[in-house]
Structure formats: C-alpha cells, structure tokens
C-alpha cells in the first residue's frame, strides 16, 4: 500500500511578467526534479496577475522526518535555486509547512 502524505511543504515566489516564461522553464528543469525524486508528490502552479506572476510549489511528504532528511536540516528554511535572485522580485523568506487534515480527490 502506498504511503499517504501527512505534510505539505509550500513555497511561493513572484516574477515580473517579462521573465515569467523563462523562470517557469528554469524551475521545471532545476527545482522540480529533486522533489520528484524524493517527495511523495509535487505540484507546480502559476498565477498570471497584471503586474507580477506568482509561482507556487507544493511538495508532499510522509512525515516531518522525511522532509527534514530532504532539506538536510531545518525544513522551514528556504533553499533558493542559484538563479532565483535573477528572476524573483523578492527572495521568499519562508516556507509554509502544513499538516494534511483531509486528502480526498475526485478528479473524474
């Protein structure tokens, strides 16, 4: 039986519209693959607003221990990608850690 996640780790960052497509390619190539290899699941969201583009990454973990093993220490510490300062309007200062209380999906 597959392990169900109990923890969601949420990161959010904002870019200017003129670099959003390039940042999306960059985060897909550099930020998502390590999560795909270690987390139980990962989602990447994009919200296009008038003045800025928001990206949100949610990764799902079996427990805090699994997530802490991935982050090699404090799970709430932000681990910026090398080119984040180039693309992001401001470097995010925190990661959100949420306990998953309900995990039901009806997609069909």
From TrEMBL:
Protein name (Swiss-Prot/TrEMBL): Antibiotic biosynthesis monooxygenase
InterPro entries assigned to the protein according to its UniProt record, in alphabetical order: Dimeric_a/b-barrel
